[in-house]
């Protein structure tokens, strides 16, 4: 494994000039987000266990959890949340992981995020509005039942 020291002390890569980031770190960041996108939970967990911040964000403000949620990988979402990833972290467009999971129609991811305290009113559009846009009144009712 490449050194993860840079990634544990600087979890937010937004606004960082890429020329300031060593090439091996840029490659590792790319690999980490690919792991979240593919649902490679075990390998990603090893990196997090060795110091990569579970709240790592890319240049678009997407967290590892956002990418895993949007890609439909509930076991990866569970692992990241268990390692302290913020289930309510919004990306640069103001989108939440929960709204993304609703948009992608990923019921297991939705369940995982709600179990870990995802706020249905976070973001724009928020999860409730997203469910309404897709005619998912069952989800709207469920989200309201959670206090939203």
UniProtKB/TrEMBL annotation:
Keywords: ANK repeat. This is Ankyrin repeat domain-containing protein. InterPro entries: Ankyrin_rpt, Ankyrin_rpt-contain_sf, PP1_regulatory_subunit_27. ANK repeats lie at residues 60-92, 93-125. It comes from the Bacteria. The keyword RNA-binding does not apply. Pfam families: Ank_2.
